[in-house]
Amino acid sequence: MDKIDITVLKALRDWRKAGRHALLATVVRTWGSSPRPVGSTLALREDGAVVGSVSGGCIEDDLIARHAHGDFSGSPELLRYGIDADEAHRFGLPCGGTLELMLEFDPDPAGLSELVEALDAGKLMRRRVALGDGGVSLAETARPEALSLDGQALSATFGPGFRMLLIGAGALSEYLATMAQFSGFAVTVCDPRTEYSGHWSVPGVKMAEGMPDDAVLAFHPDRRSCVIALTHDPKLDDLALLEALQSEAFYVGAIGSRRNNAARRERLAQHFDIPAEALARLRGPIGLYIGSKTPPEIAVSVMAEVLAVKNGVALPAEMAVAVGKEKAPALAA
Q1: 321 CA to centre of own chain
Q2: What is the pTM assigned to this prediction?
Q3: How far apart are CA 235 and CA 140, in angstroms?
Q4: Whole-number Å distance between alpha carbons of 293 and 124
Q5: Distance between CA atoms of 25 and 27, rounded to whole angstroms?
Q6: Gap between the Cα atoms of 103 and 79, Å rounded
Q7: Helix orientation angle between 258-270 and 234-244, rounded to the nearest 10 degrees
Q8: What is the pLDDT of residues 195-244, one digit of tens each?
Q9: Residue 333's beta-bridge partner residues?
Q10: What is the CATH number of domain 163-332?
Q11: For residues 182, 187, 192 and 195, what is the CA-based torsion angle, rounded to 10 degrees?
Q12: Are 232 and 196 in contact (CB under 8 A)?
């Protein structure tokens, strides 16, 4: 679940608790090209206030106008945009795309509060909305499932937001934390070295106290978490990696050269008995090979790899930093 979806739910909850009329729009189907994927959400208040997005803007404008005229009320409604080329062009849908929304009117504030509280507690929730009367049921689930819509109900999985734990509070961490936050990650940084942590300047980032292994344990990495070691100090990075490799984190990586990465793997295997299958999850040298040299460029490289793994993209071997650097001299010759 992206950070914007949690923001949508919280805004909708607050509006409904305050007694305001509001609707929740969810993208349930798309045909052709669509500006937003299935599952994207938008909350719309009676006065036109909007949080979230279901398109590039034109559909939002139409929803605002129709809501202001009282067109929406009652049971959930399915609404389709872009049925023909002219309408697709009118609403800014690319390449004649079509999308279908489900609109829920005045969702129950108690149910929204229950859902948000469960998400804040780190639970993965399945929300089912009956099409007939708009009745909502919530249940905790073990794994994410694709949004489904049948003749009876809409079912969608909502989970805690994506999180990133950075070990090290240097310049690279500051750039990476900034990029991670605007990519929807909640970021935590741990660095017991006060000469680094004392000068941290990125707002919105949680600072974890203690040593890296304790920070990883307190972080409780799950399938929506990544742990990245950036200190270049084996005494700190290895502590974090020992715990992270035993977690469900979808991405575990460490900064360093090819030689340092090989030495790190040897240490973890020989001195800490990390099994081969766990070591296979360790990424390093981290990032995609883009010829990066400076901290901001390296942060772009690392963030791109994290997002690719998060999104299930199979990256070509040539994009790996180790492979790219091996080929670079030949390309330059």
Answers
A1: 24
A2: 0.72
A3: 39
A4: 39
A5: 7
A6: 7
A7: 60
A8: 999 999 999 999 998 999 999 999 999 888 999 999 999 999 999 999 99
A9: none
A10: 3.40.50.720
A11: 20
A12: no
